[in-house]
Known about the structure:
Blueprint: H1 12-23, H2 28-33, H3 40-49, H4 51-77, H5 88-115, H6 117-120, H7 122-127, H8 129-145
Amino acid sequence: xxxxxxxxxxxxxxxxxxxxxxxxxxxxxxxxxxxxxxxxxxxxxxxxxxxxxxxxxxxxxxxxxxxxxxxxxxxxxxxxxxxxxxxxxxxxxxxxxxxxxxxxxxxxxxxxxxxxxxxxxxxxxxxxxxxxxxxxxxxxxxxxxxxxxxxxxxxxxxxxxxxx
Length: 164
């Protein structure tokens, strides 16, 4: 068991630093491992006793959900193109990479939905069609990069040519 540190008195600047790191996607556990930061029990005390800190944490967690969503898009965009004329070893490695990316995306989606359920839960997607289109766009990018020819949408004859 880790040695408990001496509690640090609440300071707005320190609280802001903690919340900035949290908003940037770092976990409270990881922040508290930093010897310059208060331990987890001190943060629990601050959260239960200091309204200002509770408000700051709530806001930071919403920004953290946005950071996780940004990471979802980054992961989807960084999926390499499917290898053409690849050996079975290369295809297996590519499929493993896709599986890891899918796991990371699913995990970040789950966390974002818990941090800010009004904006990132499945129910929010049902209420807000643009969320669904964002999820669809991320999947489409992954499909296209995987080399799936069926992923490309059919172009309508009614659309003007981009060259016109």
